[in-house]
Amino acid sequence: MDTLNAILSSDLSLWGLFVSSFLAATLLPGGSEAVLFGVLKLHPELFWPALLLGTLGNTLGGMVTFGMGWLLPQTQQLKHVEKVRKYGTPALMLAWVPLIGDALCLAAGWLRLSWWQAALFIAIGKFARYWVVAVFTQI
């Protein structure tokens, strides 16, 4: 029974992390880093699954914001468009930065930048941030 509880606890923790990471990367507020920290403190053996699921959820959430930008009419000017236009999709490595990251994803979508390059650079930045948080849980 203890094994079943441990499996259910770890599975639910990973699902909760994924959902939290996804929602935190959309325009909704959230603190997925705290959820990652908690999951890894309770289940240190889940280091890589938690890191990868958190990154996946957060990247998908960023892509939702990218898609929202893609759907906006191009008749209006968005605030961070010039920065994204200047640096291109590599600027999306900063998609993890609160508030600014959402605007960058939205601007990249509005500019109709390559979705797969956007996903790649968003994932790189978000993985790096989660990796730092995950490493600190090991201390």
Automatic annotation (TrEMBL):
The protein's superkingdom reads Bacteria
Q: Which UniProt keywords apply?
A: Membrane, Transmembrane, Transmembrane helix
Its transmembrane ranges are 12-40, 46-71, 91-110, 116-136
- Record carries keyword Cell inner membrane: no
Against InterPro entries, the record matches this protein to: DedA_domain
Q: Which PANTHER family match?
A: ALKALINE PHOSPHATASE LIKE PROTEIN, INNER MEMBRANE PROTEIN YQAA
Full protein name: Inner membrane protein YqaA
Instruction: Report the source organism.
Output: Sideroxyarcus emersonii
